[in-house]
Amino acid sequence: MYIQKLKKILIPSNTPKPNQKIFWLILSLTFATIYSLLALKEAFSGEYIVQDDARQHVFWMRRFLDPELFPNDLIADYFQSVAPWGYKTFYWLFSQVGIDPIFLNKLLPLGLSLVTSAYCFGICFEILPIPFAGFIASVLLSQNLWLQDDIASGTPRAFLYPLFLAVLYYLLRKSLVPFLVAIALLGLFYPQYVILTALILIFRFLDWEKGRFCLSKNRLDYIFSGVGLGVSLLVILFYALNSSNYAPVITASQAKVLPEFGEAGRSVFFLQNAWDFFILGSRSGVLPKKLFLPHILIVGLFLAILFQKEEGRRKKEERKTYNLFQKEEGRRKKEEEKTYNLDNGINFLRQLPLVKQITPNIQLLPQILLAGVALFVTAHLLLFKLHLPSRYTNHSFRIVLAIATAIVLCITLDGIFHWVSQQPSSKNRRISGLIIIGFLGILLIGEISLWKNFPYPDYQKGQSPEVYEFFAQKPKDILIASLSEEVNYIPTFSERSVLFAWEYAIPYHLGYYNQIKQRATEFIFAQYHSDIQWMENFIDTYEIDFLILDRRAFMPEYVLKNRWLRQWYYQMGNQIGINLQNGNIPAIVGTIDKCSVLETEKLWILEAECIE
Known about the structure:
Elements: H1 2-10, H2 18-43, E1 49-51, H3 54-57, H4 74-82, H5 85-95, H6 101-127, H7 131-145, H8 150-153, H9 156-173, H10 176-189, H11 192-203, E2 206-209, E3 212-215, H12 219-240, H13 252-256, H14 274-280, H15 302-306, H16 311-318, H17 326-350, H18 353-356, H19 364-381, H20 391-421, H21 426-449, E4 459-461, H22 465-472, E5 479-482, H23 490-493, E6 497-498, H24 510-527, H25 532-542, E7 546-550, H26 556-561, H27 563-567, H28 570-581, H29 592-595, E8 596-599, E9 603-607, H30 608-611
Parallel strand pairs: 5-6, 5-7
Antiparallel strand pairs: 1-4, 2-3, 7-9, 8-9
Helix pairs in contact: 2-6, 2-7, 6-7, 6-9, 7-20, 9-10, 10-11, 10-12, 11-12, 11-19, 19-20, 20-21, 24-25
């Protein structure tokens, strides 16, 4: 009786009642809220905290609040130009009521996570109409996403998950208008996945019957795929016809010879190990990092095995003939027993009633995988015209795996219930029920509690508040130059322009990156030159107002570890280090005492006018 009640709650045999669906949906959203609140706690744990990628994609949006910020700023202009139209408009709308973009960026993950969880629940329910399956898929996807910084970033890729899931959900529901609206919104926030959507729609023209592809016999597939493709093509053309002010995009041949794309570069791409490059590389690999976290997600791989065709096995059975030799017959029986043990276990699961409840919508999962792999290969062939190849599998694989795992777990649980119900002793059934609940608890929430880095929103904390406050009080049109890591935070925390910084040295558009590289090169040369005239000329050329120097900047070990020198000019860095070891002091050192306007434990801030 106890087992039957538990089964009725988790895996009802009849059509689930609306209140059951609402209960599991609310529980899914509760988990998503808890995970988001853990990240929010970290986001607001101090004054100078910002999400890592928000330093690139959000800082410039404070222009919406104050148009005088970042005047003639190459970095702000570039990141504003590459931001998708919908993404910019979203932040702009909130800025019109006085909401700071950085503040909004910290709050956004909560809302995005809830929408993502709701659509994930809905998609899983459309494939397997068991609310508990939707709950598992939603929770597992939430856990996986909060083990990385996609949702937490509040950048365009954070909007990808709720919008792409919305596209898939309305496609399965055959809701035409919401489906088209979702495609348009996806294009406004993350256009790369409109290409993926278009390819999925093309696959839906096809069906798989008797071991081969054929045209779909479902008229609705043609309607939805045709109209959806039309909207997708309009979105793709919109972006294709809008050329960047910072073109051209770097080519594969150009990138291969640049250290920026090597293993020690700013945008690591070309890895020497082929396995790492094509499989595990964060930008070049087909499998995303942390794909199988939590580890239970590996169970999703068994969905393909569970529904594999049995034609091969049947053919083997048909080829069996009567053998007059009993010894040979016995040997074959033993071999068959070994060979089909696993098949028998799978067949047991196939015969369960729950398997029959899986709808034809399950075809969407392999369609997503095929589309992702196809675009991954295409992106490698057209490098970097479709940007990074991993983007097309990174996000889509996570979604598919979470849903597949939920389906396999529910089928397995249904099998366990079936086995428990056949146990003769009520005591055994009660113990088995407790084991089931404990097992599910460990799978869904127990593993997370053991991880110290959950969630992982990748928030960065500024280490020099006095520096940020100092520059925030200066005129809005000042320009700062430095090799220090602290310049990565100044545009966000001080709202002032920097000439260049490691965080903003993105090398994909040469019209932008060549300027950043030239600025950094000239500054390195001027900072370590023995003639102060080089620094004076640099200040005049770029109209610099302040310089920031690390106190360790003139120690040989600092020079050898500096990321700028290590990436571009390893030989130059070695020579600078040798010069410092030999006692050749750069001319800028002689100006520190008289030109320093602020000194901290780690930094000197010099007034450029004093140096001139």
